[in-house]
Amino acid sequence: MYAELFKTFFNIGLFTLGGGYAMIPLIEQEVVEKHQWASKEELLDLIAVAQSCPGVFAANISIFIGYKLRGVRGAILTCMGTCMPSFLIILLIAMFFHQFQDNAVVQSIFRGIRPAVVALIAVPTFRLAQSAKITWVNCWIPILGAVAIWAMGVSPILVILAAGFGGWLYGTFVKPTE
Asked: What is the pTM of this model?
């Protein structure tokens, strides 16, 4: 089981470009669909917790899954598996980057990768919105939060606290029928 945990999260770390959010589809495929180590609902909760914890998003999720399945050892192995590919790749790039940083082909490749990374981040964002039951009625909440952070410079912590307080108010006084 330990080898399987390490191998799974090593592959997630190795084959995903674009950071933590771009890893969500691969994490969902491996953790929820293939190995059934967590349900979709649990993964959604883990994503919310991983976002609010300090540290690397994908590492946080891997730690939670590893700990759930095999305790501290599992958490260490899954975190190492997630982080090691990036560490090794960055180490190699740092060793040789000065030799090809001005190469026109390399610069073109990086320009081509950027839009793909945006798509890799957009797809899980929309899937998360569906899983979180964000509809046309309540989509103003994440939009307002994003605008507050991006355009007005509001701290993301304040947005999270305000959303939590708003959710508490709504649940306490409006009492949804869901």
From this structure: 0.62
